[in-house]
Design brief:
The chain is of the alpha+beta class. The protein is 35% helix and 14% strand.
């Protein structure tokens, strides 16, 4: 018998996340479910290397989904590595997004301190 993964469904009144949706006492709160913060929080929860949608990656990066689409269609493609599932569905591995962000970092030098008397 295969072990069952732990349930990720919180008590209905916690306001916690189930998938990309915020859950309140009455079920899915459609007004806040797709708020970028909720989508971003849900996208980072769960599997260590799960697939993310264009909307989830856009929320995580703080850009519009059209920006990711533009990056994908650039010649050569830009942005995080993506997986074209179908003509209309594209996914991103969480590890690819994190790796891309890491490569985009600009490390700045610490400001030089002035010597006394100068």
């Amino acid at each position: 018998m295969m072990p069952q993964p732990p349930s990720r469904t919180p008590a209905p009144d916690t306001g916690a996340f189930v998938g990309p949706f915020a859950v309140g006492a009455s079920g899915v709160d459609s007004e806040s479910a797709l708020h970028p913060t909720n989508v971003a929080n849900a996208a980072w929860a769960g599997d260590a290397d799960g697939l993310l949608s264009t909307e989830e990656v856009a929320a995580l990066l703080g850009v519009d989904p059209s920006t990711l689409r533009r990056w994908r269609n650039a010649k050569p493609p830009e942005g995080p590595t993506f997986v074209p599932i179908s003509e209309r569905v594209t996914k991103y591995w969480r590890s690819d997004v994190l790796g891309w962000l890491s490569r985009m970092r600009v490390v700045t030098a610490a400001p030089a301190t002035k010597k006394a008397g100068h």
